Amino acid sequence: MSKVLSRRDLDFLLYEWLGAESLTARERFAEHSRETFDAFLDVSQQIAERDFAPHNRAGDLAEPTFDGEKVTIIPEVSRALRVFAESGLPAAGMDAEHGGLQLPHVVQRACFLWFQAANTATSAYAMLTAGNAHLLLTHGTEEQIRRYVHPMIEGRFTGTMCLSEPQAGSSLSDVTTKATPQADGTYRIDGGKMWISGGDHELSENIIHLVLARVEGAPAGVKGLSLFIVPKRNLETGERNGVVLAGLNHKMGYRGTTNAVLAFEGAAAELVGEEGRGLAYMFHMMNEARIGVGSGAVALGYTGYLHALAYARERLQGRPVSGKDPLAPPVPIVEHPDVRRMLLASKSYVEGGLALVLYAAKLLDEPSPENDLLLDVLTPIVKAWPSQWCRLADDHAIQVHGGYGYTREYPVEQFYRDNRLNSIHEGTDGIQALDLLGRKVTMRGGAGLGLLLDRIRATASKAPAELGGPVLSAADRLAATTAKLWATGDPSSALVNATAYLDAAGHLVIAWLWLEQLLAAEGKDGDFYQGKRLAARYFVTHELPRIGPMLDLLDSGDTLLRDMDDAWLG
Amino acid sequence: MSKVLSRRDLDFLLYEWLGAESLTARERFAEHSRETFDAFLDVSQQIAERDFAPHNRAGDLAEPTFDGEKVTIIPEVSRALRVFAESGLPAAGMDAEHGGLQLPHVVQRACFLWFQAANTATSAYAMLTAGNAHLLLTHGTEEQIRRYVHPMIEGRFTGTMCLSEPQAGSSLSDVTTKATPQADGTYRIDGGKMWISGGDHELSENIIHLVLARVEGAPAGVKGLSLFIVPKRNLETGERNGVVLAGLNHKMGYRGTTNAVLAFEGAAAELVGEEGRGLAYMFHMMNEARIGVGSGAVALGYTGYLHALAYARERLQGRPVSGKDPLAPPVPIVEHPDVRRMLLASKSYVEGGLALVLYAAKLLDEPSPENDLLLDVLTPIVKAWPSQWCRLADDHAIQVHGGYGYTREYPVEQFYRDNRLNSIHEGTDGIQALDLLGRKVTMRGGAGLGLLLDRIRATASKAPAELGGPVLSAADRLAATTAKLWATGDPSSALVNATAYLDAAGHLVIAWLWLEQLLAAEGKDGDFYQGKRLAARYFVTHELPRIGPMLDLLDSGDTLLRDMDDAWLG
């Protein structure tokens, strides 16, 4: 069995639960069939296992270096990305008019999870490039698409998103990078950007930076931000543009992906769309990146879980607590309840997280006002929940391995380090919490949350009462808590415990998706389906109750964190 | 303010809460006074900050290497250990008859925390040596004390504990290392040992290994284990004994401490005490090591918290949620509720953990049947609770730092990696859970747990009802849950959710110790005492409620983890 990801589970979620085949009834996907979906899944697994997984550790040990001239990365990375580009996967989801195959998002997501699970650092170059291309496909001109997107699809160019600056991380309203209009309609960019993943390297002929900057005289705050295309090299001459690599950051994990400090020094740039709408455009890429980050967290947790499970079945140690006969042979550690606790919890996190990211992806395939709204509400949860809980699966994977898991001779410690980033980049967990409680559940009079809760209740009503009941109650409580929090309309009290709200909503959503899986497994026999029933029961009975104290805190209206004096912290 | 540890907090806990000065009324400590205690605390801080902290990162970046001949470690480590030995700290707690100063355990513990917080990897050599020496002082002969312990006190020798083998980690009953009696009363040791911290290096003239092995013909299981002294070099000739370094393990963190695979090949050995009592003796060192591990977890969490707090007060980013005027200047991030949540939670974990380890240490200073029993019950909590929750403080420290925290340019990511080991070595968290619920709370008819709950109730009764009440209720619930779990006497059902029990008991104990601190701060003014009141309130109102669902699970008698089929895991 693959230790990268589970094709069996993907098939279950795609076909037995989400009915991905029915998408082929839609005009956009009419050329597709289960066979074409499976072909993409097959090739993704094959390339991920053959070209991505084997250098995962090498990329961690030999991280990119910068000698003042250029960035050196182990050659396996560019080879893997070339194979990826040649497979046709980068264009698979795009419109036929751009040479794409109009593969559904949900299948693309499933395919890309293989790469993220096999080698999160190498896959990040592809993910950023795809996000960049998708933004330009939506908001760029035909000319920009031809010049920038087509070479990205062909694997000749890569892309980045340049938002943060040393003084502007979570707070993009403080971006100071300046754009100066030129007589010919182009712009020059000056300023410093920070935390640019894939910001410099020699993996591609060119790097297309999408840069948030402020045109002189633009208003303060996010409304003054515009978005620019800044290529590393002039497309015609091949000469370097004014984009200087000021240094690489050295991370705890995710080491194979360069993370750069970039100085823009009179860099030639083209405007995307209209001035002043930069952040709105960027959120196109950002929302996709947030789902990508959540997916990456799922992928790393999933591979950690599979490694832990395989180890627990092989490793002999100890005897059952009842019957400690020292002469009895030791048992595989998977027989010890505490090891099972860690494995079953991990299974419930990673398979629940996988269901979440695929559900979100399918919403994109069936656009409607309802589905768009639902995706808006779910996005902060898709980003933050796996970043926290699928990371815990990697933590458990270390613990299951014991001392071995803490060594670099085993892969799980890298998964744990790599996964730690996902709670930080593309908006920290705390930012997601403010987004969920401060914007998403209040927008359109709470219609998005209402829709989500309706879907949760509909599922819970169909499930056996012993598992459906707790989920129904939790949905009702979340509705009441939300109303109570916003009753005063005062953000400073409503948002003070926003993280508890995100945590509670996240666990409720995953409990719902476990009921969905339970129903999809109904009446089916065999270990796989028994596993789904087991994990659904576990999640509802062992995990969902965690949210009780969170909702109690929110309901209490406690504002300790607002009212305290920070001088008391020590 | 020091970012290593807080002397103000140590003073509060030692003098205002635990009344450490009153120990000087005891004959053993009659030569001491607040002044001598303070002098040891001062020198510890000074050496820790001057000789240990500065090479913490260097020891991580340049981990020990083995060239087949000898182990190379950065020279700062041996210099620091030499200063430590020359300070007199290693002998400070020992009996006057062995050249010691009979410093109370609680003061020694406070002193040693400075070294663990400044540089956990370098301090580990000293900790292991101390544990080794203490075991021999208790169970060795006068001759063994003179030959082995005195050079350890002088800093010339270091010590290890050799328990684990590749096939015997958590399960010591499977130890197969063999001891063969010689005609002269000595033994020869043959076998392989694994995970030996400080197992080989050139930091000392000699390394004294304490080795668990089985004399031929001894019974199977732990009753057949004996304990042996195996020096790396013959004390008289200086020649190498049959102890071969087979390799070093490469860890995720804690890298500065060598971790060795050792092959014993006819190594000359002396028996400690009597044959067949090896594990009982080793538990002398093991219990001390478990408290040392808990202390190390506290120390790493504490320094992480102090770094995060300092950063949060400096770093400007964003504006309060009510009043997002983009022209307003950004505020220090310590003003954002979610950052305060992470800081206040961390404060409650690390100061609560510090109270726990000092409380445990003081029990050793006032030996009595009651105190010994209480220490027995508390030991698994002292080991496991900080390993989990003070590590979370390091996790929060990364998150507070944002992207910066994830880079190796800042120190917090190392604390996080280093602290991950503490849930594994000297008995995993899962082993501690079985120890607590399976042995400690049932021994002597539950007298130990009864004593602990009595103390908790006595404190809670004195605290303001709004905080004392929840702690009283939790103590009553834990008592009832414990009785219910063991009502059937069947370990396979009683122990199935042992980890939930350990987690619940741990949070209750910390809540109790926060009430203790609240009472010790009563009537005192100023930010420091306000901080104690704030954290006590936070822990009881935001943290203690977590245990509700844990106790619910335990009360439900759920045996899912025992009854499930592991084939269902996937």
| Chain pair forming the biggest interface | A-B, 102 and 102 residues
Biggest β-sheet description of chain A? 5 strands, mixed, barrel
User: What global shape of chain A is seen?
Assistant: globular
Strand order, largest beta sheet of chain A: 4-5-9-7-6
Rg of chain A computed from alpha carbons, rounded to a whole number of angstroms: 24 Å
Average per-residue pLDDT of chain A, rounded, comes to 97
User: How far do the termini of chain A sit from each other?
Assistant: 52 Å
Runs of chain A in which pLDDT lies below 50 for 5 or more consecutive residues are none
How many domain modules of chain A?
Answer: 3
Keywords (chains A, B): FAD, Flavoprotein, Oxidoreductase
Family (chains A, B): Belongs to the acyl-CoA dehydrogenase family.
Pfam family, one (chains A, B): Acyl-CoA_dh_M
GO molecular function (chains A, B): flavin adenine dinucleotide binding; oxidoreductase activity, acting on the CH-CH group of donors
